[in-house]
Amino acid sequence: MILTVTLNAALDVTYQVPGVDWDGVNRVSEVHRRAGGKGVNVARVLAALGREVLVTGLAGGPTGRAIERDLRAAGLPSALCAIAADSRATLAVSERARTALFNEPGPEVTTDELRNFMTTYEALLATAQAVVISGSLPRGVPPSTYARLAAIAAERGVPAIVDADGEPLRHAPEGRPSVVKPNAEELARAVPGGTPAEGAEELRGRGAEAVVVSMGADGLLAVTGEGTFTARMPYTVRGNPTGAGDSLVAGLALGLVESAPWPDTLRRAAALGAAAVAAPVAGDFDPAVYADIHPKIVIT
Amino acid sequence: MILTVTLNAALDVTYQVPGVDWDGVNRVSEVHRRAGGKGVNVARVLAALGREVLVTGLAGGPTGRAIERDLRAAGLPSALCAIAADSRATLAVSERARTALFNEPGPEVTTDELRNFMTTYEALLATAQAVVISGSLPRGVPPSTYARLAAIAAERGVPAIVDADGEPLRHAPEGRPSVVKPNAEELARAVPGGTPAEGAEELRGRGAEAVVVSMGADGLLAVTGEGTFTARMPYTVRGNPTGAGDSLVAGLALGLVESAPWPDTLRRAAALGAAAVAAPVAGDFDPAVYADIHPKIVIT
């Protein structure tokens, strides 16, 4: 089983509104509600590829229950720990040509609730082949938490991938994770100045076994114990980049579980990322795009 | 107890977003979630005036549970009947100067669920001094339903107020309600051509005991068995007109329960409507505005 951690699980709501009146009343023609958060998206991709997954993290209030209900409906096993505060929603208002995204501030987590999650997390690691730790932290959760989760996994011999931004990313290497996956902008914020390769080396120097930098249409850069690799995309896939990073991380998790060589892992991860851009909803990927682009990705 | 019926109960969500990027990502600075729907707003006003109220109607899914939770938190007693589909949310995105409102399509109600509600409604009427039937109908509920609810109340000697639009408004007089309360536009749609007074007379002719037409800053027109009255506002209150009609209806319900003379009822209803405009949220009213404007309203 691959465990995915989503401490700030969300209910992703999409409103289809043809021709929005931004100062009036709008009838929403279609509403979609779906469990989200980066770890949930990773689990969706892995499940679609036939892998056993388990979604864990924190969820509370009516929005938390809606998240759990959607996970059940999607057939994604979950073991989310309860919090008292209401989980966050994200809203995308989609007009024909443009989309406005609204991110709610999210819940405040108490020390007891986080401690309770830690106990659950340790128990779930017992049957995990790999763990993916990704997304934002809710308020009240210290920025060192991802490093701590990675360290606990490392002690148990479970490879961990951390996909984070800001302070949680800066702290992540301290937990000696198998992979840290920032995108180029996140890396530049965490390690200012220097090239992506230098930034990645810096994170490795601080404890990360490997650093994979996603660079959108420019592919991937991986700095690993086996050397430095790049994955170059043969063409640009147009669509919705939201969730592409999660699909890519799912590919990295597969590589860890299968102990695949880095070039194979990177090719699959890059192809899954591109295939996710072609799918309209985060957590989905287009199998046809995946099949087409996978063999054409050049690893050097 | 005054019973309020909200067949299409809603969760009213407000996002405060200073400076919206309508084609990008926005951080929501404040989120408010509150049970809504016109009957709920009426109940809030009545409860604030110290009246015993009971909220009934239909609610389902995670959104329905959030509605019930908020009613409990607000101390508003409720007996909502369960439906399988998810209740609707409404979303107001508030920038500094303007607000975009998004109305979800709402749930589909089954025949069995409506029948179950009818049974509950009859039982609740036993202790009701008056019933307020207001707002939109969810899909699957016939447009004659408000007439039917009013007729059942009439049989039991419980005075009913219907506040509706479109087909439900056109059907309402068939149930011989004590009061039908359209605004001027709703009345013009239901009875096209002619003055508001003629339209109101027409609805009385079809069975309504009294018709009160709300005309915003122009006050009220009431065509009743005791004659025709107008309530003229001494000045225009600026603010948020959403919920003003519900506050006004609360005033009409008080008049029914107290068997007050029409001029007193209309003065109070018009003052409550104006005081609601001065409050930022539907279901609230400004007591200072109420106290100031109430004695200045001219009834003729």
Automatic annotation (TrEMBL), chains A, B:
It is an enzyme of class 2 (transferase). One of its GO terms (molecular function) is ATP binding. Residues 22-281 form the Carbohydrate kinase PfkB domain. Pfam families: PfkB. Its EC number is 2.7.1.-. GO terms for cellular component: cytosol. Transmembrane segments: none annotated. Keywords: ATP-binding, Kinase, Nucleotide-binding, Transferase. One of its GO terms (biological process) is small molecule metabolic process. InterPro entries: Carboh/pur_kinase_PfkB_CS, PfkB_dom, Ribokinase-like, Tagatose/fructose_Pkinase. It comes from the Bacteria. NCBIfam families: 1-PFK. Belongs to the carbohydrate kinase PfkB family. This is Hexose kinase. It comes from Nonomuraea phyllanthi.
